[in-house]
Amino acid sequence: MSTNVTFLINKSEITAGTRGASLGPDAIITAARKKESYLFGENALEKIANSNGYLDKPTKYPFAKRIDGLLSVYQELNTKVAGIINNNSFPIILAADHGSAGGTISGLKSAFPDKRIGAVWIDAHADIHTPYTTPSGNMHGMPLASVMNEDNLECKINEVDAETASLWNQLKNVGGITQKVKPEDVVYVAVRDTEEQEEAIISKYGIKWFTVNNVRTQGVAEIVEGINERLKNCDIIYVTFDVDSMDPDMTSHGTGTPVPNGISPQEAKDLMIALAQNPKTACMEIVEVNPCLDEKENTMAEITLDIVEAITDVIKKK
Ligand SMILES: [Mn+2]
User: Fold this and answer.
1) What is the pLDDT of residues 233-290, one digit of tens each?
2) Is residue 53 pLDDT above 90, yes or no?
3) Separation of 42 CA from ligand 1 center, angstroms?
4) Residue whose C-alpha is closest to residue 121's, from 200, 230, 11
5) From the CA of 245, how far away is ligand 1's center (Å)?
6) How far is the CA of 100 from the centre of ligand 1 (A)?
7) pLDDT tens per residue across span 34-49
8) Which 8-state DSSP code applies to residue 117?
9) CA separation for the pair 76, 240 (Å, rounded)
10) What mean pLDDT is reported for the chain?
11) Residue 255 · residue 244 · CB < 8 Å
12) Overall pTM > 0.85
């Protein structure tokens, strides 16, 4: 058996709070060219339209910044990701910021409308805010809530206007199915920087959460066993990897919101390889490389490339 891989590049950085993540996918491709890897020439590569023009004008939506642009990004990802899967290829999304994940999951659900989807969220952050709870308005903190059809009104701190609420509802409805992932089918790995509104929802649903310490003390194999056990009733698995899950001292600060005490690059690679090996895994996404913020030249992209190469190898042999 062999599987085709299609890289899907999304350079939209409209949901991050810092600038430069749109250069992340190119930084990874540059790292490949530097080491004369032909990864991106030997596999199919597609792109979605660039929405970064939304950064050049003020946003009307303080609690969901540039949500109008994000709606287009979700719609385009929905079509592209479903199209790649329906074409019997395995999509690996290289995206600027994590707002992309909601569109990707929409596409996965569009391809598999009757299947139960599990999501493995490897990240320093929980990304489960909503316009009603966000302190920053940055939508890279909301993709998971958007695909869970979650508003978290119990923890509401913002008075959201009708237009924002309508756009948020449209975002949750991309692909025509509002709840794409159930809370019991989400697993966090390495999350360590959360806000109380997020913690409330995580504990309300009992979302499974493996800490950095769990990974370090139990080892990657046991964590992956735990993930697979938790998601045993899911038909399809989506894996999202935010590079800020890794420790900035062992990588670099080349990401929008670095957080100390993350997993090591080796742990990240072992984890991603093991997850790629699961036959249920149907889509993987890598996000938040920001070379503008990298104090060690292109180190974050080089480390990320190593992970992307490793999972591509595994997937192509499936
Ligand atoms: Mn994230």
Assistant:
1) 999 999 999 999 999 999 999 999 999 999 999 999 999 999 999 999 999 999 999 9
2) yes
3) 29
4) 230
5) 8
6) 10
7) 999 999 999 999 999 9
8) E
9) 18
10) 98
11) yes
12) yes
In the reported structure, the alpha carbon of residue 288 is separated from the centroid of ligand 1 by a whole-number distance in angstroms of: 8
Q: How far is the CA of 318 from the centre of ligand 1 (A)?
A: 28
Find the 139 Cα to ligand 1 centroid distance in Å: 10
Residue 2 C-alpha to ligand 1 middle, in angstroms?
A: 31
Task: Kindly give the distance from the C-alpha atom of residue 209 to the centroid of ligand 1, in angstroms, as a whole number.
Answer: 15
What mean pLDDT do residues 132-154 have?
Answer: 98
Q: Which amino acid is at 318?
A: K
| Coil, strand or helix at 250 | coil
**Ligand 1 centroid distance, CA of 98 (Å):** 5
Cα of 242 to ligand 1 centre, how many Å? 5
For the beta carbon of residue 217, count every other beta carbon within 10 angstroms. Answer: 10
Residue 1 pLDDT exceeds 90: no
Tell how far the Cα of 127 is from the centroid of ligand 1, in angstroms: 6
Tell me how far the alpha carbon of residue 46 lies from the centroid of ligand 1, in angstroms: 22
* Those residues with Cβ within 8 angstroms of residue 29's Cβ, 6 or more apart along the chain or in another chain: 40
The topology under which CATH files domain 4-316 is: Arginase; Chain A (3.40.800)
- Ligand 1 center–CA 289 separation, angstroms: 11
Sketch the domain layout of the chain as residue ranges: 4-316
Q: Coil, helix or strand for 76? A: helix
- Residue 312: helix, strand or coil by DSSP? helix
What is the rounded distance in angstroms from the CA atom of residue 7 to the CA atom of residue 19?
23
| pLDDT score for 172 | 98
CA of 1 to the centre of ligand 1 (A): 33
141 Cα: distance to centroid of ligand 1 (angstroms): 6
| 2 band by pLDDT with thresholds 50, 70 and 90 | confident
pLDDT band for position 21 (cuts 50, 70, 90): very high
Give the pLDDT confidence score for residue 166 in this predicted structure.
98
